Amino acid sequence: MVSHSIWIVGTSRSGKTTRLVEQFCSWVKPKNTYIESFYTKNQGREKADNVSKFLYLKPTEPGVLVLAANDDNRRELGDKIVTSTSGKYPVRGKTPLGFFQDEVILFWPLLINSLNLKAQFPVRLRPETEQELATKLWRSQLDEEILRLAGVNESRLVRRILDLFQLAAYSGTPCEDIAQILARGLGENSTNLEPEFLASLLLDWRSWCLERGLLTYGIITELYSQHLLSDRNYQKHLTKRYQAILADDVDDYPGVARLLFELLLDEGAVGAFSYNPDGGVRLGLGADPNYLEGLAERCRVESLTGPPPESLGQQLATQMVELVTESIMPLSLPEIVHSIQTTSRAQLLRLTAQVIANAIQSGQVEPEEVAIIAPGLDAIARYTLVEILLKQNIPVQSLNDQRPLISSPVIRALLTMLALVYPGLGRLVDRDAVAEMLVVLSRKQQPSESTDAMNRDAIHRVSTDIDPVRAGLIADYCFVPHLDRPNLLPVSTFERWDRIGYAATTAYNEILQWLEQQRSQQEQRLIPSPISLLDRAIQRFLWNGSNLPYEQLAALRELLETAQHYWEIDTRLRQASSGRVEDVGTRGRSDAESSFPVSPRLPVSVSPSSPSAATIVEFIQLLRRGTITANPYPVRPIGGARKAVTLATIFQYRSSRRSHRWHFWLDAGSPLWAKGGAATLFGAPFFLRDRLGEPWTAEDEKVAEQQRLRRILADLLSRVSKRVYLCHSDLAVSGQEQLGPLLPLVNACVTVISETSVNSSDTNLK
Known about the structure:
The protein has 26 helices and 19 strands. By secondary structure, it is an alpha/beta fold.
């Protein structure tokens, strides 16, 4: 019997997503007067061999499950479908984990009955909150001896243990089997920690979270794969809701996604899947491309040709991959591959920025057609490239620039304001923080009058009534430290307060008056929560009718979202400690019948003497540790894409599925090009379905690095159309010689750019 589902195989930019959208349109737009339901059980029809030509999906019938690898791709896929169908068919795209989360929350009453959970609404934990609570839960067990054996600090060890739970859930492995898999996989290469000990910590963590209705990505995925998918009631609802599956880039999906797809296909649904053999961007973060590829056996395979002819993948991929992986030395690479070579990395950063600026100013390329891609971007490299290009009026856009919230002066000022209003927070305030707060809260923003069309939205002129010098004087003479009630005195306390000036004095008095008003309202319990106080400060001092830059607005939004989430979790923990929950239905069966034995062991508690102050202290300390970044929803500005140079790591660039005319591969001699780095979690190879629990040897690691490098080269070359610059410095930041896997490519370049070959008229760029 010919399968009605299709499996679309193609490299990057070969048209896989476009083909998926076409398939969707063929489902919703009739091409024949003959109409048949997807769920027809009469497989003997003569026209069934070409069912895609006459299937017609009505908006009133069960819908299509549309999935994409990440949130940005989900939005783009949804936009393409809406555009192609003229918006006549409602589509709700999801990521696999987003779909699992929605299903677990939607069918939470079913889980309450089957697992004997408390009847309370579930609350999802953010990763940073998850790590903080798990650290508190395990702190008594992760003593100095355990940390010494592990060889990492407490924060890193907690994250590793939580990642093991997440990897197991993504592979469809029950938490109870983690110890067995780790024991087989680690073998003699153990981390000096017993697998049974690590598994017991995770079982305690899962029980503790479920007792309080808290959900993490790992718990959500395990609940869905181990309990919902096997429940007959849920299966009935699922198959009634979806008669078709549309999944893009399944090579980045976790293994449990295949269980979902197979269930729907077994019940008569049809599917369209796209797969990139050079993808696997999230391999090492829970994706299992080899296991998902097994779905092709149930589909009609449709192979697309390679990348578009204008991409360099057609011309260079095979040659460059062979040169790197097989050490085949050609005479030279084509002239479209250039090399930028310097001795030190500082010289390399300056020269790379100079070459980009020269090309843009000479009209060879537009800013939005240039991408700088590196295996890892440290703060110095990012700052250097951005500053040099901005001085030439060339804007730079950093993809998913996850800088900690605490790095923003605005965020630090708002946290200082909290410590001045609420009692018991005096240890969190010092003179420097107060001076910075006065500068930030006294500033006024106005759009710059001299801006051009290219960077009009990025340039703002910031003026403050209290400059840093006056703010320092005020903090030195008017700030009174106190453990419980730190205070600001009137400006007249300073004997030479006339030196402050009228504008600064007026602004300081306004801030002082506002703080006194908020203190008074806090004592009268007229401020519902610190979130309300943050919002008041933003409205009064920062927003004030002005248009904030997107980066600053994103930081403020993320601060409010984080605060709201933190106090929501705090409220839930207090309810659990007092025995009060929000009833959503029956309490379920007896404890003896529970599939998840829930025990409230090792509860997390806060100071009972001043719970509000204790929570605020923990919130501020969480931000100061730098674990929260400015990525609110949505994570990108609304409107057209900025005309800016793209700056990204390899992982960020490949995940975004972007393409450019010119590529600058930074640190081409770095060994990190073949390493997984932060994109590979500890223990990830043990949870791949085709080698579940098998030991990971040095030979396996070598093969994995070669395969990763081959995928990276093929993928990046498919995303560039005109020119590639290999940017190499002989010495790394540490002063060591760079002998990475791409060095043969650098040596094979005919066109070499050095500092002496650049026009001397551009030396001001240095």
